[in-house]
Amino acid sequence: MTAATGHQGRAAGTQRQLPGLIAHEFGSDFRCFERNVQSVFFTLVLPVLFLVILASIFRNATVKVPGGIMQESVYYVPGIIAFGLIAAAFSNLTVTVVRNRESGIYKRRRATPLPASAVIAGRALVAILTALAITVLLLVVGWAAYGASIPGRTAPAFVVDVVVGAAVFCCLGFAVASLIRTVDAAQPVVQAIVLPLSFISGVFIATSELPGWLAGIGKVFPVEHLVAALLAAYNPHTTGSGFRWGDLAVLAVWGAAGLIIAVRRFNWLPRGG
Amino acid sequence: MNAQANVEEQALIPLIREAAARLPDGQEPASGGPVIEVRGLRKSYDGVEAVAGIDLEVRAGEVFAFLGPNGAGKTTTVEILEGYRRRTAGDVWVLGVDPARAGRDWRARIGVVLQESEPESELTAEECLSLYAGYYPRPRQVAETLELVGLTDHRTARCGRMSGGQRRRLDVALALIGDPELLFLDEPTTGFDPAARQSAWEVIAGLRNLGKTIFLTTHYMEEAERLADRIAVLAAGRIVAEGTAATLGGRDTKASIITFTLPAGVPAEDLPPAVTGGIVGTAGGRVEAQARSPLSLVGALAEWAKAHAVDLPDLQVHRPTLEDTYLQLTRGPR
Fold it and tell me: What is the CATH number assigned to the segment(s) B2-250?
């Protein structure tokens, strides 16, 4: 990756095309991700720790799910997959975007021919790729340690849920990033959103064990719908292909709202002054 | 220090050749046409005028220094020229384009060193430059650019672990990687130690030799004096003086100050008329005189001293410095 390889292969003096620029941004953003210990810990290590801890505590317990009961250790696999996916696609993305904007990194890039679409798409690809990576990691740990497996008939629904979930939380990440004014506020704001929602959306505690009003609040937000959609793929009582169209529709609405805010409010310049 | 400077000078030679080779036949470098033209520029924030009507012209190949105290409107003006901020009124052309409507092709022709910006802390200097090189249609070579700013030895250092001076050099390298025609440097050496400032000046002087046009803002008079072909002084949103370092604010025609101490028992009245006519103050035998033509006053004083066998060992002739002129221009009831 030198300057020379950057401009060989296109006529000297012409601007680079968007796909090439997106790939270029993605490569660099991914390198920044994998070299940042905090990013790797919170997105790839912490969700695995949570799964191991929770599934070990409730090893012999069962939990009420739609259609009947299931092993609690298996129940935690889709819940923590949702948690890991959100950490990668939403939390990490939000914090990185705020940091890049507030420290003047985006401002500097604004003075170059790089279009905003390449900045956004490059970073979104990192978020989606790391979301897929933590999903696969948790799938494997869940299967190997707790015998959690997805039947073939619900596997396509599971893949769709993961892809939709990653895309939706990525849009929400850009939207929330546009509302945060300082680097110091980014991590606390993100955790203040993700942690309470995780508790009332079936990530750490099954929604069947929550008071009705709390579960009702959870249903307004996208986390609950992602958990419910992923759980359907693991739930032994699920009949048919396991597509939860209602949950996917709610996720899509949140994603669209996030996308509109993100596109309208994207800013290259620091907001904190 | 000297070894460093030599490395940088040597690095410039191939760059100059390369720049010369790129020019189309018959085209002169630094032909002197306007690169920046500003007419009646105004910018208000919530009704307060930060820039209150500025006219500017920067010609191709010149180093133009923009001086002024904090809050005078320097950064606001520069950020309008760079395309970051919208103006309230006036006309602005940078490389023949209105920066408020400029696109990718225009951005490929400018380079910007911001007053404050952090690097991508997880990348090395080399990776950072390769990243930015990939944004441009005709980038400069990474290794060569690292050498130009004296970062070759630190190319594999993570940007997050670099010293302030090294980061500033990287800022300059990142602004140069697209091989711009016009470079904006917003207080490029603020916070540098004297040695780092000296080597930054060598880099900037080298860029001028490559035919780049440079728009520089600074607090340091010495920096403007060393680097700039022309200087404009901004105070409270207005340009209060414009000229070269030698002529700014009428500095070349201002009176010199001549001071000396008379020996005990010699009253100032004994001095010849050519000297007494210029005296503006005497205190404890110390005489201060002003003269537009310092040589005639000093000549008369010397003849008188020789004739009276008097020595004046602390005789001084003081020209107003650029800093004196600047302080006079920017001071005031604002």
Answer: 3.40.50.300
Task: Give me the pLDDT at residue B53, please.
Answer: 93
Q: In what order do the strands lie in the sheet with B256-261?
A: B279-283, B286-291, B256-261, B316-318
Is B117 in contact with A108 (Cβ distance < 8 A)?
A: yes
For the entire predicted model, the pTM comes to 0.84
Inside any domain, residue A46: yes
Residues of B in contact with A113 (CB under 8 A): 104-105, 107-108, 135-137, 178
Residue B43 has what pLDDT?
Answer: 94
Residue A271 falls within a domain, yes or no? no
The ipTM value here is 0.90
Is A160 part of a structural domain of the chain?
A: yes
Identity of the residue in B122, B138, B178 whose CB atom sits nearest the CB atom of A112: B178
Do residues A162 and A230 make contact, with C-beta atoms less than 8 angstroms apart?
Answer: yes
Q: Total domain count for chain A?
A: 1
Whole-angstrom Cα distance, residue B309 to residue B326?
A: 40
* Dihedral pair phi/psi, residue A201, rounded to 5°: -120, 10
CB-based contact, B37 to chain A, within 8 Å: no
Residue A170: C-alpha distances to residues A42, A62, A249 (Å): 16, 33, 16
Residue A4 has pLDDT above 80, yes or no: no
Cβ-contact B50, B237 below 8 angstroms: yes
Query: Which residues pair with residue B63 across a beta bridge?
Result: B214
Residue A12 within a domain? no
Domain that residue A143 falls in: 17-265
In angstroms, the CA B300 to CA B319 distance is 19
CA angle A150, A151, A157 (to 5 degrees): 75
Residue of B nearest to A116 (CA): B104
CA distances from B149 to B6, B152, B168, B204 (A): 12, 8, 9, 9
Q: Which stretch, A244-248, B46-50, B270-274, B280-284, has highest mean pLDDT?
A: A244-248
